[in-house]
From TrEMBL:
PANTHER family: PURINE NUCLEOSIDE PHOSPHORYLASE LACC1, UNCHARACTERIZED PROTEIN YFIH. Its cofactor is Zn(2+). It comes from the Bacteria. InterPro entries: Cu_polyphenol_OxRdtase, Cu_polyphenol_OxRdtase_sf, Cytotoxic_necrot_fac-like_cat. It catalyses: adenosine + phosphate = alpha-D-ribose 1-phosphate + adenine; S-methyl-5'-thioadenosine + phosphate = 5-(methylsulfanyl)-alpha-D-ribose 1-phosphate + adenine; adenosine + H2O + H(+) = inosine + NH4(+); inosine + phosphate = alpha-D-ribose 1-phosphate + hypoxanthine. This is Purine nucleoside phosphorylase. Keywords: Hydrolase, Metal-binding, Transferase, Zinc. Purine nucleoside enzyme that catalyzes the phosphorolysis of adenosine and inosine nucleosides, yielding D-ribose 1-phosphate and the respective free bases, adenine and hypoxanthine. Also catalyzes the phosphorolysis of S-methyl-5'-thioadenosine into adenine and S-methyl-5-thio-alpha-D-ribose 1-phosphate. Also has adenosine deaminase activity. Gene3D superfamilies: CNF1/YfiH-like putative cysteine hydrolases. It comes from Fictibacillus barbaricus. Belongs to the purine nucleoside phosphorylase YfiH/LACC1 family.
Length: 273
């Protein structure tokens, strides 16, 4: 069962949208855009050497699809780190129609403001979504293997609990489409970091060793495990079963496309009533 339901040509996080009809949350695909190969066709990333005019057209077109004005979007320059920034309406438009104005050196964004769409970009890394209904908080985190072992997911949870007085037992998380363990082989260096992040709480579903001495790593399961260790309840975590490398007709994949490809976008925001 897909956690993210296909709505037109994008995926929507319907479970949360049923809870709150004013919530807009989901994940773009590579379909129905304006970019040419190898960025065909709905490339949302300015930083991959696509024609910026085409990326702008893609974003404006998608803004109309989800009925959330592009001038209300905000994005960051992702660096595979664990820096998290709270944003407000004051930064609306940052990174929405160019790369230069995006919030620097940041892989996690959250807000309590309405009419602000948080965005993040992917081509195999794990999109993390966060929602605290009581505090009206929404957040996104970009978790490649480096961000994952740096515990960007747990850091979002800790930030909300410490700075926003959120109750860890009511925080919800969703783990979006990413490269699956079926397609993601890593070496000892990565697995040693994974083991350190798990701090003795190893889980057989997170990685398995191959005959060649390398490992198949399940980044989605690793993020789920780390969020559970951070105190989230199992029933408040939902995990996609879609692999961006396997479903290359639907998704861009950095690994499958050998580094020259476009980017999908995760997004979450609450519309003002």
């Amino acid at each position: 069962m897909h956690t993210f339901k296909q709505t037109g040509k994008h995926l929507s996080l319907q479970k949360w949208q049923v809870q709150n009809p004013n919530l807009v949350a989901g994940f773009t695909t590579r379909e129905c855009g304006n970019s040419s190969m190898p960025f065909q066709s709905l490339n949302m990333g300015f930083h991959v050497n696509d024609d910026p005019i085409m990326v702008q057209k893609n974003r404006i077109q998608f803004a109309e699809t989800i009925h959330f004005p592009v001038q209300n979007w905000v994005g960051s320059k992702q660096v595979h780190g664990a820096n998290i920034v709270k944003v407000t309406k004051n930064v609306r438009g940052a990174g929405s129609l160019d790369f230069e104005s995006a919030i620097p050196d940041t892989d996690g964004l959250y807000t309590a403001d309405e009419d602000l769409l948080l965005t993040s970009l992917y081509a195999d890394c794990v999109p993390l979504y966060f929602y605290a209904p009581n505090e009206k908080l929404v957040g996104l985190a970009h978790a490649g293997w480096k961000g994952t072992v740096a515990k960007i997911g747990p850091k979002m949870v800790e930030t909300w609990c410490e700075k926003e007085n959120a109750d860890v037992q009511t925080i919800q998380a969703a783990i979006g489409p990413s490269i699956g363990d079926c397609c993601y082989e890593v070496d000892d260096r990565v697995i040693s970091e994974v083991k350190a992040a798990l701090a003795g709480f190893d889980d057989a579903s997170v990685y398995k060793e191959n005959e060649n001495g390398k490992y198949q790593l399940n980044l989605q399961k690793l993020n789920e495990k780390l969020l559970l260790l951070a105190g989230l309840l199992p029933e408040n975590i939902t995990v996609s079963d879609q692999c961006t490398s396997c479903e290359n007709d639907l998704f861009f994949s950095h690994r499958k496309d050998r580094g020259k490809t476009g980017r999908m976008m995760s997004f979450i925001g609450t519309k003002g009533v």
